[in-house]
Amino acid sequence: MVVGACAVCGCPASQRCGKCHLTAYCSKDHQKQHWKTHRTECSPYRVCQSEDLGRYLEASRDILPGEIILKDSPLVLGPRQVTVPVCLGCFTPVNGTYSCTMCGWPLCGPDCQKNDLHKAECQLSRNRTSKVQVHKFMQVNQMYECITPLRCLWLKQHDAARWASLTQMEAHMEQRRTTDVHEVNQVNVVDFMKQYLKITTFEEDDIHKICGIIDVNGFEIPGPNIIGLYGKGCLLEHHCIPNTTRTFDAQLNLVIRAAVKIPKGSHISTSYSDPMWGTANRQLHLTTTKYFKCSCDRCLDPTELGTHLSSLRCVKCTEGLMLPSPSPLNPDIWACNSCPATVSVDHVEQFLKQLGEKLVMLKENSLNSSEAFLKATSSKLSENHYYRSDVKLALAQMYGRGGSQTQQQQTNLKELSKDLLERKETLCREVLALADLFSPGESRLRGLLLYELQAACRERYRRLPKKLRNTSHSRQLLQECAEWLKEASTILQRESPLQDEYHLGLQAEEELSDLTSILTRFH
Ligand SMILES: C[S@@+](CC[C@H](N)C(=O)[O-])C[C@H]1O[C@@H](n2cnc3c(N)ncnc32)[C@H](O)[C@@H]1O
């Protein structure tokens, strides 16, 4: 059985390093020869297997916070299934002004036509008598659902080692066969390949399996419309409080760092859903796209570790909170923790659905309607409810960011009233406390919030009367800002340059050097 490419000669390999179970070799000789190099890089984890989880990663030694656990280059990169037409070389949205001269798929220019990423669908789309024609731009276009599957299927004939890694991934074929997603794939991927692209080389079952592999294992790369498949990264199991952070570098390599200390023998996890969502939403996402129910401590606790991220205010008494009962994983009813009041699960779902629609309708960048949402929900949802936390995060980022002048309060930080400056700081601190609990370590969310928090505190410092600026208390405040700015700059610059966060990280670095010179003057 081929398990990958030999680390020494690149030939298809059938053996792996017995320690990390990852690096592959074609022979014992090559493994011996490689040990001198491999010894230093042999990973801090091993691949294990269990009935419940399938393959998973376990720490083979204590791993320290911030340590890089793995760096993995993509096996396949492609556009997300649901996407507007994007350039198949660089993934930026296209409008049809340039198309590949060989196959007809829209691209942004001749340079992207030469990009190897585009090779698979380019060659596979040439069975048609005429070139591919895309008409609908600037809206979701189903034609693109076949691209990433085609890039995977291409490996079958062109890269045995990568195909072997890919086809070992979990596809959950049995569970998917009876779902809507299977029907949609039949029409938009299988039939489209056969009827429109005239591709007949692949078995229907292979195509469906690849669609399953993409859904279950693909990492959505934040920012651009890209989905990536990673041979080692796909082995990370899910946890609703992951012990690692996940970023993608400039080459779109997946970088997994320890978020906290991970003792030897512990499982290494990432989050397949958004750690800031409530339990019901996380479960829905995991059961419908990854085909398992999570039963971590957070999911089993109706209070979500005391945060009440999903709790509602009691419909009868003033102080109680309503929680799913008997268990958040299978509730029969929602019950107040302070009086005998109960409401049905249907009622809660309907109520949250309606409120969710209102949340979606909140005008982007609208401070007033976001504050109005918080006010209106304060008697209905717990203080930390995930809907409210979502709006608080948006507000924390909006206050003082300038931009649209249609909103009266949408001013620069320097023009923000004292009350609103305080409000920004409070919102940052509230959401940061939740982010640190559910997404521990140097998460992107922490980076973003630290940047906003230090901005508010530095402005507070700037407004101090001159004589108060040089007290030890204010110097301490500024010192704290410098530490937050440094951390934000480090965290955000770990993101790919395709993302806005990376550029905010660069800005943070510049601001830090200004702040450092102010602090030096103090000394
Ligand atoms: C990305 S794959 C992880 C690797 C996979 N275990 C394998 O053997 O290839 C995701 C699948 O792993 C399993 N899995 C991951 N985390 C899990 C968890 N916390 N509880 C149960 N199953 C989990 C589920 O079957 C899920 O669909």
Key traits:
single chain; 523 residues; alpha+beta; Protein msta; zinc; 17 helices; 4-stranded mixed sheet; zinc ion binding; zinc-finger; Beta-clip-like; binds S-adenosylmethionine; protein methyltransferase activity; 42% helix
Q: Mind explaining what this structure looks like?
A:
With 523 residues, this protein is of the alpha+beta class. It folds into 5 domains: 1-42, no CATH class; 47-73 and 230-271, SET domain (Beta-clip-like); 76-229, no CATH class; 278-413, no CATH class; 441-523, no CATH class. It has helices spanning 28-41, 110-114, 119-124, 147-158, 160-167, 173-176, 180-196, 204-217, 279-290, 297-300, 345-361, 367-377, 386-398, 418-438, 444-462, 472-492, 500-522, and strands at 4-5, 12-13, 15-16, 24-25, 45-50, 54-59, 68-72, 76-79, 219-221, 226-229, 237-238, 244-248, 254-258, 267-270, 312-313, 321-325, 333-336, 342-344. Helix 12 (367-377) runs antiparallel to helix 13, helix 13 (386-398) crosses helix 14 and helix 15 packs parallel to helix 17. The longest helix has 23 residues, at 500-522. The radius of gyration is 26 Å and the shape is globular. The termini are far apart. Bound molecules: S-adenosylmethionine. Residues 52-56, 169-170, 172, 216-217, 234-235, 237-238, 290-292, 294 line the site of S-adenosylmethionine. Residues 43-273 form the SET domain. Keywords: Metal-binding, Zinc, Zinc-finger.
